[in-house]
Amino acid sequence: MSAVAPIRANNFADLRLKLDAATDEQLTATRDYWAERTGVIASECLLFVQAEITYRQATAALVAAMAPPTRWEAQR
After folding, report:
1. DSSP state of 1
2. Alpha carbon 49 to chain centroid, angstroms
3. Across the chain, which distance is largest between two alpha carbons, in Å?
4. CA 76, CA 68: separation in Å to the nearest integer?
5. 45: closest CA among 22, 19, 12?
6. Which residues neighbour 4 within 8 Å (Cβ) at sequence distance 6 or greater?
7. Rounded distance between C-alpha atoms, residue 48 and residue 33, angstroms
8. What is the pLDDT of residue 2?
9. Three-class SS of residue 60?
10. Are 26 and 4 in contact (CB under 8 A)?
11. What's the predicted TM-score (pTM) here?
């Protein structure tokens, strides 16, 4: 079990709101929590968490690709 507690929510809308404001550690803990569960609700929650992780990774890659070149790269 992770040292960070997973996100708890009352419904799917609440979960999506909390995922948006969660830290990376909370997302990981929440993903691990729902991966251990079975059933339709657990699979839906796991999909929400995985979608948020994918969104964050894609955003980070886009920001990195848009970064201006450093002075060293510009001189090459």
Report:
1. -
2. 6
3. 56
4. 14
5. 12
6. 23, 25, 26, 28, 29
7. 13
8. 47
9. helix
10. yes
11. 0.78
